[in-house]
Amino acid sequence: MNNRPLVITEDRDLLDDLVRIAAAAGTQLDVAHAPAHARPYWPIAPLVVVGDDLADAMAITAPPSRDRVFLATRELIEPDTWRRCVAVGAQAVVDLPANERRLVDEFADALEPRSSAGVLACVIGGRGGAGASILSACLALRASADHLRTLLVDADPLGGGIDTLLGHEETSGARWADLVAREGRISATALQAALPAFGDLAVLSFHRGEVGAIPAQAMRSVLEAGRRGFDLVVVDLPRHLDSAAAEALSRATTTLLVATADVRGVLASAQVLAEVGNHTADIRAIVRPGVLGDETVAESLKIPFAGHLPDHPRLSAALNRGELPKLGPRTPLGALSTALIYDLLKDTPYDNTPRPPT
Prior knowledge:
CATH architecture of the largest domain: 3-Layer(aba) Sandwich
CATH superfamily of the largest domain: P-loop containing nucleotide triphosphate hydrolases
CATH class of the largest domain: Alpha Beta
CATH topology of the largest domain: Rossmann fold
Helix content: 25-40%
Low-confidence stretches: none
Radius of gyration: 24 Å
Shape: elongated
Number of helices: 15
Strand content: 15-25%
Number of domains: 2
Distance between the termini: 47 Å
Strand order of the largest sheet: 8-9-7-10-6-11-12-13
């Protein structure tokens, strides 16, 4: 099956621009220099770009209506340009070189499989040491073990690196420093190929010693690519929100707030919650054991109770050895992770996860 965009033009300068733009999107083109040559490709090409020079001739052939058709021009856009756009059935006019970035994105979008957006879950601690990073890692590991394509994003420059928590800090692959300079859209396929991966789990973390803030645009591009290319995206957030963390929260399907069940922990969580609530709506409480009951903590915070994050014997020693606790569905951490994943993905196209143990 053809999987290359179709360009219809006799304008060599325009064609040179389109070939360069396609290369930036990682694709090649099928080129038709006359409407008759375009007919076999018109219905099957993922995207069609009609040059302004052949728009009228193409319109005379009355091509079947379809989506992802653009009219490209290197001239100033005038009223007659819009007439040709409508006549050929294009959805927009793209003037080059001013708007070539849009065409790069359209080419790249057309080449990626269309699917429903993946689920994005943010995890944040109500106080330091509450266990948000542990929960983020466990969710990602449990989901990938169930063969869900999972992306784990470390959004805390001062957190020590979630790849270290996983014991994979030496694994080669892209880190945040390799992506922050990237402007515009990131291909989901390219992101998957660039990141360190362990089976169905891909991880985006920081280089050692790196403390630079993540630009909001970089976070937006990564999360958009993540939702296109993965079933589940888990973002481990810092407690002190920066612009990148706020960007992640604004795109979250659900945010899990990890609170410790003591008075100070509830008060600190309430302060974090007040800030988090400015950026997202669906916030749920995960409670660490303490002197207060789980429901008391959730009621104090006025958010739904989503689960109990148990203490794990010898967890600190295991983490220092680069080991995470076992996450079988019958273990406390595994059962919590399985229940949360099922709740996150239910009623979505990815609702094929194991049911939580009863």
